[in-house]
């Protein structure tokens, strides 16, 4: 399945190798490093070549500038469960993050016909957590101290939305 979505304010396309410089630039910004992992080019390439995953870039409508990227996992899930593995938006606060996550919900439940969409998020990522709640995700719990950063540990929250809940929140 090749993904290509054209909306009024953005275009979503599969990431190409030549897009990775910009992806790495966005990922490496300090404001993003606090909340997403810092991968190498080859880790991103592995994801692009993994049939279970989708590496997507969000472009401006003229397709001149990459505004962010997302990684989805579980494209071949026997459990009909899709993971929003990563989302990073460079042009923050303009509504692109919310729009992109709304698209992921539609894609998961309407296009793939899946049962579950889930993600994990660092407990101090208040902005992302607020967006997931607004978009109808339910908190499943906290993985306490699950990630080691230098000498300290960080916790992550799990969020999910199921197909019935998606239908209830169809307009959010
Ligand atoms: C999280 C992220 C994807 C959101 O994308 P975005 O385009 O900046 O977000 P949007 O403009 O769509 O929406 C922002 C919403 O968060 C709210 N918000 C902003 N700062 C907030 C804060 N500190 N606490 C709670 N809510 C906050 C805004 O009010 C807005 O909601 P509104 O539309 O009701 O006003 C983006 O900021 C990002 O890439 N962050 C770094 C990487 C990251 O955290 N990724 C998610 C990992 S799980």
UniProtKB/TrEMBL annotation:
Classification via Pfam families: Acetyltransf_1 (PF00583)
Domain N-acetyltransferase: 10-160
Gene Ontology terms, MF aspect: acyltransferase activity, transferring groups other than amino-acyl groups
InterPro entries attached to this UniProt entry: Acyl_CoA_acyltransferase, GNAT_dom
Taxonomy, superkingdom: Bacteria
Identification of the protein by name: GNAT family N-acetyltransferase
Organism: Isachenkonia alkalipeptolytica
UniProt lineage: Bacteria, Bacillati, Bacillota, Clostridia, Eubacteriales
